Amino acid sequence: MSLPWLRQSWQQLSKQLLEQQMPPSLLLRGERGLGKLQLAQFVAKTLLCSEQQHQACNRCHSCQLFDAGAHSSVFHFSHDKPKVDDIRALTAWANQTSQLGAYKVAILSDIGSLNPASNNALLKTLEEPVANTHFILINHLPFKPIPTIASRCQLLTINVPPIEQVQQWLVQQKLKLDQHFPLIHRFCNGSPLAIADFYREQQLSELQSFVEQYQLALSQQPNKLAELISKDPLKLHWLGHCLLLSISIARGLVSETTFATFSFKAASVKALELAYQDWLDLCKQWETFPGLNLSQQLYPLISRFKD
Fold this sequence. Notes:
- 50% of the residues lie in helices and 9% in strands.
- The chain is an alpha/beta fold.
- The longest helix is centred in the last third of the chain and has 20 residues, at 269-288.
């Protein structure tokens, strides 16, 4: 496993594979950008490998087919939001006999995005496991799988590595870190792959524009904060980071000089805390109803700063 922060998790799974104790359903949970999909794929590859029991050999016919994306015993959705028909297709596939080797492995990349009908269909599939068929589910924070699905799986939480390890790995990737790294690290939830993508895709100007609109909202000036989030709902998480960072700086929990681009003099701590509670409530609503009109729902939160 090439990603250093995944080695401990891989060692645990490798031991289970060697002892043939791999559960029918495995749930990998953690922040985006930690390599959960890479770990899921390596576990699947090892299960299907014809030469090794605890780690894929990368040489056999099965491993070569896996690397080419042509292994008939692998089921992996090519899109992020599977519908109920997709889950039914998965169930039909699971009930087929493997054409190559003893095992079949299905990988579901983001079960937090499943709608209620898809959740129910998946639950039924997990409740009636097929011999020699393994399911590896991936769940991104902050969204949670429904408890009944989680209860059918072995849960493995992938933790964010220490910031020193993140910095060391990023430097090894030939990325030049700058004075904005603490801000980027925070807004990427400390996930190394997410931070690397952030730098490579040059998203700093986009983040700076978002922070500028947030600061305008704090100072009760016209802003485009709701518009930015409506166009890209993932920026709702950026708003949460802004609010938490504002509260932390206002309470002296982090140094303001570390985040020199921030200025929070326009809003009271009480207003910030009430807005953060609104944000938590909105995230729960969005998790339940992904089609929610965020622009409309953000109005009460932004209005907190007018008090």
